[in-house]
Design a protein that fits this description.
Elements (H helix, E strand, L loop, with lengths): L7 E2 L6 E4 L3 E3 L2 E3 L18 E5 L4 E6 L5 E7 L2 E8 L9 E8 L4 E5 L3 E7 L5 E5 L17 E2 L12
Parallel strand pairs: 1-9
Antiparallel strand pairs: 2-10, 3-4, 5-12, 6-11, 6-13, 7-10, 7-12, 8-9, 8-11
Length: about 160
Amino acid sequence: MSVSPEFTRGKIHDVVVKPLGKFLDERGWLAELFRSDETDPATMPVMAYVSMTRPGIARGPHEHVDQTDWFCFIGPSNFKVYLWDSRPDSPTHGVKQTLFAGIDAPMSVIVPPGVVHAYKNVGGVDGIVFNAPNRLYAGEGKSSPVDEIRHEDVAGSPFILD
């Protein structure tokens, strides 16, 4: 796969960013993360997990060949989300997009295959991220290779977090 060493800032084709509305009452709040009646069947989740990331820590950058990630950043911290379009046939090939999401801006971010992605906890407390990918991690029964191309330790990688 050919990777462009230079990325321009902009919005990436096929990445879906949706603010998550909070429904507030005296008990607290509720936010719908996804609904099947509002979801493209190609990105319909098949599993879900939550992760906790400590302040100042990043996850990624990495990408998937077939998997679409459906991240939901809801707090209690804030994250800087990094996206790089390395898909050769994409109309936004070579574009880098950054977002701020979390307690101050709850949102879902749907990341298609071939878009390199990472996120960093930029808040002062542990942060929780929900992900509902459209592929099973390591396949059925966890018996297949993991669909992940990691870029964290690649010398000269253009996928740099600031």
